[in-house]
Every structure is written in C-alpha cells, then in structure tokens.
Amino acid sequence: MHDILDLDRYPLDQPGSPQWRALVDRCKADLARDGMYNLEGLMRPGAVRHAAAEVTPVLDTSAFTHKRSHNVYFRKSVPGLAPDHPALKLFETSNQTICADQIPESLLVQLYNWPHLAGFIAATMDKPVLHPMDDPIACANVMRYTASEALNWHFDRSEFTTTLLLQAPLGGGAFEYRTGLRSDDDPNYDGVARMLRGDDGEVHSFAAEAGTLNVFRGKNTAHRVTPVVGPVDRIVAVFSYYETPGVRFSDEERIGFYGRAA
C-alpha cells in the first residue's frame, strides 16, 4: 500500500500512533467546522494515473449513463410541501457510472477493502467500526462527468460520503456545499429554497486535485458538482461504508443508480 498511498504524510496504517491520532484530531476539527475533511495527495501521482488508466476503458465501453431530473431530496414529493414549493425545484444530473463488479481486481477495489482505510474513517467519525458494503455493485463506484455534465443540488441519504478524485477537469467540476442548511429536527424548507435561488451567502466551493480523498457529511448539507468545462473529464471514485455489516441495496435502488439489479 506504500506504493499507492503517501503513508509517510498520512499514516493510516499506524492506528493508535501519535501521528495517526494527530491526523484523526485534525480531521475531526475539519468535520466540525466544515462538515468535511480532505487528505490532499493521499494517493501517489503514479497510482492515480494507474487507477485512472484501469477504469477509463471500462467507462468507455460499459458505463451506465445515469441521467435524471430530480429535486434536492431525490423524492417525487415531500409530506407537508406543496408540489410547487421552490424547495422542490427540479435539476438535471448526468454522468457515467461503473461498479466494483466491473473492476474487481482494480487498485481502487483493493483500496476500498483495505481495513486501515475504513478504520481511519471510523475514528474520524467517532464510530467504533465501519464495514464495507456486502454489495458487489454498490460498494464502490466510479463516476465520470464529461463536458456540461454535473451532479446537481441534493442531500445524501447516508450520513457521510467518501470520494477519491482520480482526474480533475480543466474547468468547472467544483464542489459546492452549504453546511448546516437543515437538521434532523428542522427541515428548513424556506432556507433550502433561498439557497436554490442563489440567495444564500454561506455556500462554499472548492476544486480538489487528483489524488485527494474527501470525507463529507452530506445528509443535512446540500451540495453539488458544477458542470464540467472543457475536454478533460472529471473522474471520481465513491466508497460506501456502513456501521452495520451486510448492507445491500434493493433491486429498485440498483436499477435506479446503475441500470441493473445484478
């Protein structure tokens, strides 16, 4: 794993060491302040190029084009909201997706299953343990955004999302987010509507470099990836971990996200 990750800078393989604890504490502080943390350059440049080269031919020939019109909740309706409420404004999302079962021997799947990665993320989230999904389709995905494609405004269903950027575009493809827009007790529909109109001054943006691991609390933080500009695609891996073992998506969820149930 030392050939893949910069473990001198980020000692994920040394749980309990002073250096590991200092990194965990730094990430916890970032999570408390920003709702996310980034490990820039976690994946070594050569490994980034290798990982991108492994997945690109599969994206070119076997990807599912995920294109849908949706609101920020990914739900057709929300109890208590009129169908024309501005918080239910529709947006377009489009990308190409491949799944772990299409790249089973890849560097990315090896990294996803590396116990020290899940263990480190669990520590930063104050969880006793995190488990890989028991789902060969949904556990680890790679998404590609070509020119004009975007992941539009939404809240995540899961508590947090882990991504690893493999290729950054020349323009666009920025990650925009609004921390603390709602809570489990307050949906703040009017605040959501203001943000979607562009009237919220607390929306932040950053553009990561290839090799950056991002862990993001997206359940109550609205976020999007802006449309890609130019001939270089945005390619990102998405890793899914859960506190309970054995988690699998339903056939309906698989078909919606990946175009197939098996």
Give an account of the 3D structure:
By secondary structure, the chain is α+β, with helices and mostly antiparallel strands. It has one domain: Jelly Rolls. Helix content is 26%, strand content 25%. It has six helices and 15 strands. The strands form four sheets. A seven-stranded antiparallel beta sheet has the order 1-11-7-14-5-3-2, sandwiched between helices. It has a four-stranded antiparallel beta sheet with strand order 6-12-9-10, with helices on one face. A two-stranded antiparallel sheet has the order 4-15. Helix 1 crosses helix 4. The longest helix is centred in the first third of the chain and has 18 residues. The chain is globular and about 55 Å long. The two termini are 30 Å apart.
Helix and strand topology:
Elements: H1 18-34, E1 36-39, H2 45-62, E2 64-70, E3 91-99, H3 107-112, H4 115-124, E4 131-132, E5 140-145, E6 151-154, E7 161-167, E8 171-172, E9 175-178, H5 189-197, E10 204-206, E11 213-216, E12 222-225, E13 228-229, E14 234-239, E15 241-242, H6 251-258
Antiparallel strand pairs: 1-11, 2-3, 3-5, 4-15, 5-14, 6-12, 7-11, 7-14, 8-13, 9-10, 9-12
Helix pairs in contact: 1-4
Number of domains: 1
Task: Give the terminus-to-terminus CA distance.
Answer: 30 Å
Q: Which spans have pLDDT < 50 for at least 5 consecutive residues?
A: none
Report the principal-axis shape: globular
Rg: 18 Å
Q: What's the main sheet like?
A: 7 strands, antiparallel
Per DSSP E runs of 2 or more residues, the count of β-strands stands at 15
Number of helices: 6
